[in-house]
Amino acid sequence: MAAVKTHCAACNQRLPGASDWEPPELWVPEEGEFVGVVGMTRMGKSTWLKRWLKYLMAQEVTVYTWDPAREYSRHGLRRERTPLGPLLTQVTVSEVLAEPELLRVVEPDAELPAVAIVPNEVRPRRVDIAAGFAQAVPLILEHAPKGRVVLVVEECGLLEGNRQAEELLQEIATTWGKEDLAAAFASQATSQVPDRCRRQWRKVVAFRQVDTNDRAALTRLVSGGFSQRVARLRPHECVLADRTVAHGEALEEASAEGAG
User: Fold this and answer.
1) Domains in the chain, please, with CATH?
2) Which of 171, 174, 165 is nearest to 192 (CA)?
3) What are phi and psi of 171, to 5 degrees?
4) DSSP string, 123-171
5) CA atoms within a 13 Å half-sphere pointing along the CA-CB vector of 29
6) Which pLDDT score is estimated for 9?
7) What span, in angstroms and rounded, lies between the C-alpha atoms of 29 and 191?
8) Which of 25, 15, 6, 13 has its CA nearest to residue 205?
């Protein structure tokens, strides 16, 4: 891999380096904004996402999650060292297929839906996770209430290899923004998320990643400096890259650098 460049060749503007990336503050995504949340297991992704979802709920945002591990709602599966999330309603794939209006359920202690969609099985096989995602998640687009809506898709890497699930993942990233929906795509491995989906991310929240393929994907997506910073993070540390801020020329240089 080529040495990391420090300045843009076209404008001589300094490119962000490994020490320039900061932890993210919680925010409400703009309509049509897509975010990647990546990092190795036990590094803090789901903990951060639960905190973010709680914040969004307090900001009067409708939230949904595709939740294969049943950890994002207060009715989820309790595990040691894994606190349950803040969502108020949990529905299985079969339940939402039979009664899509469950996606509009507002609990007595809430003002808007906050729904976790889970596979039918408590401990589903990978094939069941991908199939359930492809069946149930499209109903959100039709049945979500008007207003700000954020969808979190967990474990995107488990959808790899299922054509329908991968196509839906890419469809969410490329067309759902036109319906004013925002989404976050979470994965242990950046490289397992389809490239067409990754390219639509405006922001990347990254926890520790050391795998060569994942770091190369982050270099192409953001820059070599960002990839270096992410590899040095400690557990539960994360940094944010806003891809809308960087120079187009800088991003092109970073992409070429990652391919070198």
Assistant:
1) 34-259 (3.40.50.300)
2) 165
3) -65, -40
4) S--HHHHHHHHHHHTHHHHHHSPSS-EEEEE--GGGGTT-HHHHHHHHH
5) 27
6) 54
7) 24
8) 25
Which residues are registered as beta bridge partners of 206? 38, 239
pLDDT, averaged across the chain: 89
Reported confidence tier of residue 115, pLDDT bands at 50, 70, 90: very high
If you ran DSSP here, which 8-state letter would residue 207 be given? -
Tens digit of each residue's pLDDT (9 = 90 or more) over 139-175: 999 999 999 999 999 999 999 999 999 999 999 999 9
Alpha-carbon distance 191 to 221, whole Å? 10
Instruction: Please give the average per-residue pLDDT across 204-229, as a whole number.
Output: 96
Rounded-to-integer distance, Cα 194 and Cα 200, Å: 11
What whole-number distance in Å separates Cα of residue 260 and Cα of residue 244? 24
Separation of alpha carbons 22 and 225, rounded Å: 12
